[in-house]
Specification:
Shape: globular
Structural class: mainly beta
Number of domains: 1
Number of strands: 9
Number of helices: 3
InterPro entries: CYTH-like_dom_sf, CYTH_domain, NeuTTM/CthTTM-like
CATH superfamily: Hypothetical Protein Pfu-838710-001
Organism: Thiomicrorhabdus immobilis
CATH topology: Hypothetical Protein Pfu-838710-001
Radius of gyration: 16 Å
Helix content: 10-25%
Strand content: 35-45%
Distance between the termini: 35 Å
CATH class: Mainly Beta
Strand order of the largest sheet: 1-5-4-3-2-6-7-8
Order of helices and strands: EEEEEHEEEEHH
Largest sheet: 8 strands, antiparallel, barrel
Pfam families: CYTH
Protein name: CYTH domain-containing protein
Length: about 160
Amino acid sequence: MAREIERKFLLKNQEWKALAHQKTHFAQGYLNDISDKNAKSSVRVRIEGDKANMNIKSLEIGLSRDEYEYEIPLEEGRKILATLATGPVIEKDRYLVKVDTHIWEIDEFFGDNQGLVIAEVEMQSEDEEFEIPSWAGREVTEEVRFYNISLSKHPFNSWTENEKQ
């Protein structure tokens, strides 16, 4: 079993963009309805550049969650997104930025989530120390509305000004 441990941050500015060493386009959609009170996981298909994968994550909110990921044929991934996604497909560009010994993943969203930019840093343990760069703003790890599965049900462009703070 894999365990994903990450922290999420909003960004203060665009300074990170000049530091990015890689950019990949993502399209992802969810195959189950998490509003079902019995749901214990999210199931998604993601197209990442020229690869596709199926991903299952436990529905825990916070620093760590169970995560399983399996590569699938690209054409099957495209077909699943087009026909089986339960809500809008999330589109974003992911940039990679190295800060000290960690690689930060910065997602710049499009479509219904245009204007939202979130930085994530993965860790080996929940108490691991890491450098928080000057361009990282408020931490949103514990705020469910900033998770991709929530963005597929309640996109950023439909948020109130208060929700965007």
